[in-house]
Amino acid sequence: MARPLARLFAIVLVAVIGLTACTGGGDSAISGNYRQDTLAVVTSLRNAITLPDDAPEKSAAQAEARQLINDFAARYRRDSRVSGLSSFTTMQTALNSLAGHYSSYPNRPVPEKLKKRLEKEFRMVELALNREA
């Protein structure tokens, strides 16, 4: 009697874990619409890097930027419909640059040279999105 119950319990447990793993986190700002998601990430990252260093919301903005970078990359990196677009490759370059800075120098402000480069890449992404639309 115990053996069939143990098997049933194991099957139910695997099904529950499998189904909950398949559902998204729900709290992600990434919707699945590439164009809207890209523009939202660009706007959020611009806000995060332009905040003054002494702003009280700076650390929250950086944490949100890191989460958006991870969510965006996880959502679109393997999507063959967008991975070949120039807006995507430029966006990946910008995201990798900013993520690299945040992971290597978490307590330092973003250097002016990197800010200028990111702003240039963000403009290129927006132009490419307008062309691709």
UniProtKB/TrEMBL annotation:
Quaternary structure annotation from Swiss-Prot or TrEMBL: Monomer. Forms a complex with a monomeric, partially assembled PSII. This is probably the complex in which D1 is assembled and/or replaced.
PROSITE patterns the record matches: PROKAR_LIPOPROTEIN
Family under the similarity heading: Belongs to the Psb27 family.
Signal peptide location: none
Membrane protein topology class: Lipid-anchor
Swiss-Prot/TrEMBL GO biological process terms: photosystem II assembly; photosystem II repair
Keyword Transmembrane annotated: no
Cross-referenced InterPro entries: PSII_Psb27, PSII_Psb27_cyano_bac, PSII_Psb27_sf
Main localization, broad class: membrane
Name of this protein: Photosystem II lipoprotein Psb27
Entry GO CC: photosystem II; plasma membrane-derived thylakoid membrane; thylakoid lumen
Localization (cell): Cellular thylakoid membrane
Source lineage: Bacteria, Bacillati, Cyanobacteriota, Cyanophyceae, Synechococcales
Top-level taxon: Bacteria
Pfam families registered for this protein in UniProt: PSII_Pbs27 (PF13326)
Summary of the function given for this chain in its UniProt record: Plays a role in the repair and/or biogenesis of the calcium-manganese-oxide cluster on the lumenal face of the thylakoid membrane. Its presence in a photosystem II (PSII) preparation prevents binding of some small extrinsic subunits and thus assembly of calcium-manganese-oxide cluster.
Alphabetically ordered keywords of this record: Lipoprotein, Membrane, Palmitate, Signal, Thylakoid
